[in-house]
Amino acid sequence: MTRKGTPNKLLWSESAEKSFMSLRKALTKFPILKLPNLKEPFVLQTDASDRGIGAVLLQDDHGKKLPVAYASRKLKGAECAYATVEKECLAIVWAIQKFRRYLYGTEFIIETDHKPLMYLNRSKLTSSRLMRWALLLQPYRFRIVAIKGRDNVGADYLSRI
Questions:
Q1: How many Å apart are CA 23 and CA 91, to the nearest integer?
Q2: pTM, 2 dp
Q3: For residue 143, is it within any domain?
Q4: Which of 136, 42, 50 is nearest to 87 (CA)?
Q5: Residue 58 covered by a domain
Q6: pLDDT in tens, 45-81
Q7: Which residues are CB-contacts of 72 (< 8 A; sequence separation ≥ 6)?
């Protein structure tokens, strides 16, 4: 069905259309997505895998973190050869750029399961790539917090699809 040169044999029936519309409606309803409140701080969870990067933009709602937006993409060519710390940092840089309309000018928290990134702003960087990304992130006000992998499920899943 997705091979080059192979005809698409997917038959879109009325029941398939109903299922698709039902799923689309469910994915945009509470609590799947929360409307952003620009007066409240955001939390950005990011993760990287060997194949892709993912991010979830969250906001607190009565003590519970609810998603505002999801994003993911596959790693491109040379990005697959990056070191783990570089892939994780790429996920942060890409996610901040993706959600900049929400994050620019506000203070926010980045949650990652890759602890070495906590020192991105404080340490002397030896990688020129990490140095460039650190400079790119300077206009943003954020704090990086390490979380356990089991608490980073959304971004982890998105980085693998």
A1: 28
A2: 0.77
A3: yes
A4: 50
A5: yes
A6: 999 999 999 999 999 988 889 999 999 999 999 999 9
A7: 52, 53, 54, 55, 158, 159, 161
